[in-house]
Automatic annotation (TrEMBL):
PROSITE patterns: RESPONSE_REGULATORY (PS50110), SIGMA54_INTERACT_1 (PS00675), SIGMA54_INTERACT_2 (PS00676), SIGMA54_INTERACT_3 (PS00688), SIGMA54_INTERACT_4 (PS50045). Transmembrane segments: none annotated. The modification 4-aspartylphosphate is found at residue 55. The lineage of its organism: Bacteria, Pseudomonadati, Pseudomonadota, Alphaproteobacteria, Rhodobacterales. It comes from Marivita lacus. Keywords: Activator, ATP-binding, DNA-binding, Nucleotide-binding, Phosphoprotein, Transcription, Transcription regulation, Two-component regulatory system. Residues 6-119 form the Response regulatory domain. This is Transcriptional regulator. PANTHER family: C4-DICARBOXYLATE TRANSPORT TRANSCRIPTIONAL REGULATORY PROTEIN DCTD, TRANSCRIPTIONAL REGULATORY PROTEIN. Residues 145-366 form the Sigma-54 factor interaction domain. It holds the Pfam family Sigma54_activat. CDD domains: AAA (cd00009). The gene is mifR. It comes from the Bacteria. SUPFAM superfamilies: CheY-like (SSF52172), Homeodomain-like (SSF46689), P-loop containing nucleoside triphosphate hydrolases (SSF52540).
Length: 445
């Protein structure tokens, strides 16, 4: 048997309050009735009504003021009643979030119908919210995107919606914000969860074997696209994807058809593409290093992960969460955060985002295991390695920049000789010079 609906009645007129309570109780409602809006606000959390029924004109706080207060927090729908109501007041109430507005004297059946619909909508909304929270928990999103920041809450809700779609998603954000973890959560939340999630880092692909690694070969190699058939293919650092492969990927995304290297055979696949980048792709499009049509195909939807520095008080909360995890892992007593620790956390710039914070928390716990340590000391360890690239791609780019710069200087700017010395084609050399931001004239000064 379904649980009875619950109503909170708010009216300063004792007789009206009693009359409304009797009407609802005879219709199997569970009723709580109070004489003022101030009391009602304190009872909403305790009684968890499905709907609030309130008079408009009351001493102290009016029904409209009660509506305004309820809009500032999670609350059930509010139905307003008044003997002094008029059309402008009703319009204003609805625009400000009231579920409905009834003018006294009202017809009892209409009142009961309005209240029932409001209660049903509230329960449906509440059930949907609980299901979302359960999905988020099961997918690991609440661990990936832990925090109370409004942007994080909106991001989790958007991720749940996108997980149910087959449309491509582009995840953007700085290094360390958790792009691959979010991509995996999207896969686990969606209908493809029972199929493969294949992660492919475009920055680490061998230049002469990119197509083989993505599309496979006629005989020996299956390729990431076919491995992910029926599931999700995650293209990490997609900005590094070569233009020729972008063209073939675009065709594969549009038609589902791929062509393994060394064969004319075409194979039909069913793959959802989720891509990620820590770069702004628009300038790469302008520079001719990234195809505009490929970008438009990739970012049918975009999830932009916030920087840790923009998440305010979440920094301290996340730190405490990680410290608690590492205390359990390393089997030591909980560590209390001091005011100095909090100040150090909030003053830091967090270029490595959540990944860096996790490392700081682990170093703090390891130091405590040895009987000392502080957040400031854990942060100083990062200061010593600030010049170390955060990702393999950044390290490769720095190495390439140094190598190409030296070759240009050694060969006096003769680009054919530079390309030959580096073992790459002239066109590839030109692309790298543009992408790495090298200025030939300055290197030859």
């Amino acid at each position: 048997m379904a649980e009875h609906f619950r109503a909170l009645i708010v009216d300063d007129d004792a007789e009206m309050r009693q009359s409304l309570a009797v009407l609802l109780e005879r219709s199997d409602w569970v009723v709580d009735a109070v004489g003022s809006a101030q009391v009602a606000l304190s009872r909403i959390v305790a009684t968890a009504p499905d709907v609030v029924l309130s008079d408009v004109r009351m001493p102290g706080m009016s029904g409209l003021e009660l509506l305004d207060e309820m809009s500032r927090r999670p609350a059930p729908p509010l139905v307003l009643i008044s003997a002094h109501g008029d059309i402008p007041m009703a319009v204003d109430a609805i625009q400000n979030g009231a579920y409905s507005f009834l003018e006294k004297p009202f017809e009892p059946r209409r009142l009961l119908t309005v209240l029932k619909h409001a209660a049903e909508q509230h329960r449906l909304s509440d059930m949907t919210k609980r299901m979302r929270e359960q999905l988020v928990s099961l997918s690991g999103l609440d661990r990936v995107l832990l925090g109370s920041d409004l942007r994080v809450a909106e991001l989790k809700a958007e991720a749940v919606d996108l997980a149910l779609s087959d449309a491509p998603v582009l995840i953007t954000g700085e290094t360390g914000t958790g792009k691959e973890l979010v991509a995996r959560a999207l896969h686990r939340l969606g209908p493809r969860r029972d199929k493969e999630f294949v992660a492919l880092n475009c920055a680490t692909l061998a230049p002469d074997r990119v197509e083989e690694q993505m599309f496979g070969t006629a005989e020996t190699l299956l390729g990431s696209f076919r491995k992910a058939d029926g599931g999700t293919l995650f293209l990490d650092e997609v900005a590094a994807c070569p233009i020729p492969v972008q063209i073939k990927l675009l065709r594969a995304m549009e038609t589902g058809v791929i062509q393994p290297v060394g064969t004319d055979a075409e194979i039909q696949t069913d793959v959802r593409i989720v891509a990620a980048t820590n770069e702004d792709l628009a300038p790469l499009v302008d520079a001719g290093l990234f195809r505009a049509d490929f970008l438009f195909r990739l970012n049918a939807f975009e999830l932009r992960l916030p920087r840790l520095i923009d998440r305010g008080d979440d920094i301290v909360m996340l730190y405490e969460h990680f410290v608690s995890q590492f205390c359990e892992t390393y089997e030591i007593s909980p560590i209390e955060i001091t005011s100095e620790d909090a100040a150090a956390l909030l003053a830091h710039g967090w270029p490595g985002n959540v990944r860096e914070l996790r490392h700081v928390a682990e170093r703090r716990v390891l130091a405590a295991r040895r009987g000392g340590g502080s957040v400031a000391e854990a942060l100083r360890t990062d200061d010593l390695i600030d010049d170390v690239p955060a990702t393999l791609r950044e390290a490769v780019a720095r190495f390439e920049k140094t190598l190409i710069s030296q070759a240009i200087s050694n060969h006096g700017g003769r680009m054919d000789a530079v390309a030959e010395a580096l073992g790459i084609g002239r066109r590839t050399l030109n692309d790298k010079i543009v992408k790495l931001g090298l200025e030939k004239s300055k290197l030859l000064e």
